[in-house]
Amino acid sequence: AVCTIERANGIVNRMLEENCIDDVGIVVVDELHMIGDGPRGHLLELMLTKLRVAQPSIQIVGMSATLSNAPQL
């Protein structure tokens, strides 16, 4: 699904509740530089952490046109 950070977090939460997070193999995140940037960045980091903990083999692809905080990621 193509969606906002807030919607994606809702989808992840529902998949965790329904024990179907194993169906996810890859997540593509645009605007990855938002991590650590205000409340939306916090939500993005939280969502990605939940995914990584629940499904350690998941592949996360991050994209950003401007990634000034690359060492933090």
Give an overview of the whole structure.
The protein is α+β, with helices and mostly antiparallel strands and 73 residues long. Helices cover 41% and strands 11% of the residues. The protein has helices at 5-17, 38-54, and strands at residues 26-29, 59-62. Strands 1-2 form a two-stranded parallel ribbon. Strand 1 (26-29), helix 2 (38-54) and strand 2 form a beta-alpha-beta unit. Helix 1 (5-17) runs parallel beside helix 2 (38-54). It is globular, with a radius of gyration of 12 Å. The chain starts with a helix and ends in an 11-residue tail after the last strand. The relative contact order is 0.21.
Give a topology summary:
Layout (H helix, E strand, L loop, with lengths): L4 H13 L8 E4 L8 H17 L4 E4 L11
Parallel strand pairs: 1-2
Structural class: alpha+beta
Helix content: 40-55%
**Number of separate strands:** 2
Which strand order does the major sheet show?
1-2
Rounded Rg:
12 Å
Q: First CA to last CA: what distance? A: 24 Å
Mean pLDDT: 89
Q: State the shape.
A: globular
What proportion strand?
A: 5-15%
**Number of helices, where a helix is a run of at least 4 consecutive DSSP H or I residues:** 2
The poorly predicted ranges are: none
Largest sheet: number of strands, sense, barrel closure = 2 strands, parallel
Task: Encode the helix/strand succession as letters.
Answer: HEHE
